[in-house]
């Protein structure tokens, strides 16, 4: 297997760098627009949907649970028993850790922890050299994973684009996972179209982990599973994917995508109620399969522009809807993910900036543990931009740094410092603590510039985008060095019938 232009192993170079302090100490959940009474009322609605309205059909593997208590049949629809729902929610595994491949760093989805990352399934990429949209390819996924691996404020890599140059759905899903896992050590999220692919994907993960037990203990890959066809229809194939994922110890992202005014009620409360009920059904199904399964709830009620039917992911209405969904997830104390950052702009411009900032900040503050699509996505999730990864990394860093915890124990020393500066007629720039905290308490952007007007006048250009392009070019042009060993890379090719050289040689 030739590796002349392919990846070189960096296994000997040590573990990936730890997250910045302000990322590891960013805590959300302080934004509460719903009162406790309103949360209780929405919960009553959720329970009514689950126990009285129910679902049209059940996947075959759930039929054995149909009885008078767990799943009951009412008016030719399948409903969950209230006692069963309560028992599940009171005993569900809500202490979930999503690991990186080095098995030392992990994302803890509890205590209000907030992490930003990528996501989406864009069929188009904004070519950073030609400045035009084109179909997304395997080489683009590799470059996306390589770039995100180096961005300190993005904590996980969720597949942001589809491989239009792979026709076979099974191979597409395997290529997506292998490329992602070989190009970044961050936790990887992906998806599969067929439940039979899950077993193959599990074998990939076990190989990289050094065994099944090692992966189950420290899972570095999870599956996004859109198991609902709103309103209230279970996608049987997706449910089979969910069943297989639980069996092989792969964490499940139980995602629901409804549209206000189309596949869910137009009112924000009605849409939230239905979406939460649909999401919890995935949790209940996984609990029936294995009470210790790792399930992250992903309620997404999407907003469309009702004038055109187009996406309105950057709207204030979308930010509000996501916020309410997050607040209800906190009500149930469930690990969760949300979509934010899905700008409707086609380029990384002012519109993209304010739409992303609004949705990401609102989602983080309302208590989302994992914010997917927080980086790179444009054109209402139809397009992805490598430059945007770099720019959005800085945006996420600013938001996360604003949410870090504070230590009031320093106040006594601060008061003494104030006294000394005043008495000695000095300034705080000369204080030892200022120098000490300069590189720990502040987040410094790399692409964004803080220039005086006279310096800016000399350039009069989109300085931020130019800097992002420079940084991107530096990352892309550098030799790709996989953290996986040559032995593992070769085994991936031979065992799973994929050609990594064909991808790496394009870079």
Task: Name the features.
507 residues; alpha/beta; five-stranded parallel sheet; four-stranded mixed sheet; 20 strands; globular
What this model shows, in words?
- There is one protein chain.
- This protein has 507 residues and is of the alpha/beta class.
- It contains 18 helices and 20 strands.
- The protein starts with 20 loop residues before the first helix and ends with a helix.
- Mean pLDDT is 91; it is low at 1-17.
In short:
By secondary structure, the protein is an alpha/beta fold.
Oligomeric state of the chains present here:
single chain
Tell me the major beta sheet: 5 strands, parallel
Strand content: 5-15%
What class, by secondary structure content? alpha/beta
Mean pLDDT: 91
Radius of gyration: 24 Å
Number of strands: 20
Distance between the termini: 17 Å
Q: Give the strand order, joined by hyphens, for the main sheet.
A: 8-9-10-13-14
Q: Regions with pLDDT < 50 over 5+ consecutive residues? A: 1-17
| Count of helical regions | 18
């Amino acid at each position: 297997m030739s590796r002349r232009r392919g990846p070189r192993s960096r296994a000997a170079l040590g573990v990936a760098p730890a997250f910045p302090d302000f990322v590891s100490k960013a805590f959300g959940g302080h934004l509460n627009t719903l009162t406790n009474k309103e949360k209780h009322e929405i919960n009553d609605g959720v329970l009514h949907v689950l126990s009285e309205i129910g679902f049209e059909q059940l996947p075959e593997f759930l039929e054995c649970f149909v009885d008078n208590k767990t799943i009951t049949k009412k008016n030719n629809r399948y409903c969950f028993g209230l006692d069963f729902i309560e028992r599940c929610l009171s005993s569900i595994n809500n202490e979930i850790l999503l690991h990186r491949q080095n098995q030392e760093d992990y994302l803890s989805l509890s205590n209000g922890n907030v992490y930003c990352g990528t996501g989406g399934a864009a069929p188009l990429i904004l070519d950073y050299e030609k400045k035009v949209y084109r179909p997304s390819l395997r080489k683009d996924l590799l470059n996306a994973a390589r770039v995100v691996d180096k961005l300190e404020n993005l904590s996980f890599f969720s597949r942001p684009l589809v491989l239009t140059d792979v026709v076979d759905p099974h191979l597409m899903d395997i290529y997506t996972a292998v490329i992602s896992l070989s190009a970044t050590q961050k936790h990887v999220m992906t998806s599969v179209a067929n439940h039979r692919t899950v077993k193959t994907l599990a074998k990939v993960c076990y190989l990289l982990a050094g065994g099944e037990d090692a992966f189950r203990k420290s899972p570095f890959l999870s599956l996004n599973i859109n198991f609902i066809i709103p309103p209230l229809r279970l996608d049987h194939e997706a449910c089979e994917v969910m069943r297989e994922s639980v069996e092989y110890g792969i964490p499940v992202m139980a995602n629901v995508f409804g549209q206000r005014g189309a596949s869910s009620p137009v009112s924000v409360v009605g849409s939230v109620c239905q979406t939460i009920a649909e999401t919890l059904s995935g949790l209940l199904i996984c609990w029936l399969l294995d009470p210790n399964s790792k399930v992250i709830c992903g309620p997404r009620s999407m907003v469309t522009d009702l004038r055109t039917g187009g996406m309105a992911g950057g709207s204030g209405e979308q930010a509000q809807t996501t916020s309410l969904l997050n607040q209800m997830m906190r009500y149930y104390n469930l690990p969760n993910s949300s979509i934010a950052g899905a700008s409707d702009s086609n380029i990384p411009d002012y519109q993209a900036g304010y739409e992303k900032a609004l949705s990401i900040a609102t989602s983080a503050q309302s208590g989302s543990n994992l914010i997917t699509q927080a980086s790179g996505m444009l054109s209402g999730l139809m397009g992805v931009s490598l430059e945007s990864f770099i720019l959005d990394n800085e945006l996420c860093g600013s938001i996360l740094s604003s949410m870090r915890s504070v230590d009031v124990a320093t106040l006594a020393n601060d008061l003494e410092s104030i006294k000394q500066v005043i008495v000695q007629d000095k300034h705080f720039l000369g204080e030892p603590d200022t120098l000490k905290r300069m590189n720990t308490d502040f987040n410094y952007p790399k692409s964004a510039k803080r220039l005086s007007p006279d310096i800016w006048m000399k350039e009069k250009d989109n300085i931020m985008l130019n800097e992002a392009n420079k940084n991107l070019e530096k990352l892309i042009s550098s030799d790709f060095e996989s953290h996986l060993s040559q032995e593992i890379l070769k085994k991936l090719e031979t065992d799973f019938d994929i050609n990594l050289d064909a991808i790496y040689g394009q870079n």
